[in-house]
Amino acid sequence: MSEPLRVTGMVLSAVPYAEYDKRTVLLTRERGKITAFARGARRPGSALLASASPFAFGTFVVYEGRSAYTLVRAEISNYFAEIREDVAAACYACYFMEVAGYYTRENLDASAMLNLLYVTLRALSNEKLDNELIRCVFEMKAMALNGEYPYETAEDASLQESTRYALSYVLQAPLQRLYAFTLTPPVFAEFRAVQDRQNSLRIDREFKSLEILRAMEDGNSGFQK
Questions:
Q1: How far apart are CA 63 and CA 6, in angstroms?
Q2: pLDDT tier, 219 (very low <50, low <70, confident <90, very high otherwise)
Q3: Residue 205 needs a FRET pair 20 to 30 A away by CA distance; which of 23, 43, 47, 196 works?
Q4: Are 105 and 158 contained in the same domain?
């Protein structure tokens, strides 16, 4: 058996596997996006029951196999319980997990994306921040981290000056200050339209969680804070 490997990361997804196991996808600083099986994680009283769940952030001990890892232990520093208890926030968080999975690969440095995910979930936990603004900022920063965002967009003279400033701010801001701003409704409408266009141009797949968000938005605007 290989030596145990300690990785810092977040659970992007977890689904039942076999009778009592879970198949998880972890985004880690050390190994990028990996698949890890948590044996017995669905048994009552399992030490992995809560830690092998989406949004859990901490240190995971895994063994490397031929095509996947085995998760044997975890030390979770943040479960983001407040997000799990909020239907709208949980849907946004699931979408962010999908986007992070889209942009990351195994054995590629994922430190920046992992840090972005963490500060974004922290922002979702703040009831004073608007979920849709968080969504647009996260998408924009994720594209920029992946080298896909056209920086000249922030210099588009057809946009309002405040919109151009907001775009420049997101591109340049350190992660710890990424969500430290708000926008007026007219500026946000333009900011959102710019990002939605970039999504349509640069993302070549549909996200199930985003479809759910849009259905919620159409059916009940009260989900959005």
A1: 9
A2: low
A3: 23
A4: yes
